[in-house]
Amino acid sequence: MRRVLVVILLAVIILLAAYAFNRYWTHRFDSLIARQAAIYRVDPDLVWSIIYEETYFSPWKTGRDGEIGLMQVTPTVGREWATETGIKELERQMASDPESVLRDPERNIQIGCWYLEKIHEQFRDTPEAEVRMLAAYNAGPSRAVEWSRSQQPGDTQSGAEFINRIDIPSTKAYVISIMQRYRQLKNARTSSAVLHETSPAQ
Q1: Which one of 8, 53, 130, 193 is most buried, counting C-beta atoms within 10 A?
Q2: pLDDT of 50
């Protein structure tokens, strides 16, 4: 009996340790995300959901097409960002060694948020702009614009209709996966806020 209890206790300890580590791993960049998202006026929960999908918070990862770091930013986007800053040193760094710049978590999140803000400007007046932003982030803004065109002039295309028009399976799966996680996060925050408001005062 004692042996069974020891095994159960060890299993519980392992599960708690795994939960604690996973929570640390997936939230250790939260302050960087919050800071850069506020600067570029994008939703930090959307940024978090993108990083979860892209790299599961692994800043060393690289993609098949040269994407680098947490948000899988390409050197091309990094150079565009550096040029727009007007800071010559950043332009020089991005021209000579983009990989070291983009592997820095804060810089990577900064550039990713900057790029999301630029995308948002194109879709800010559309319903459920997030689905279009995600498609543009994954497959390029020009494709997202094409998918966003309504069949009939004046029609308002819903987010679901937009997703149905995505003709790249990997991009469609990418958008659906991130939106599910993003909505779960939003629902959890809403439930937590409601619970806090309805809790009796201490």
Answers
A1: 130
A2: 98
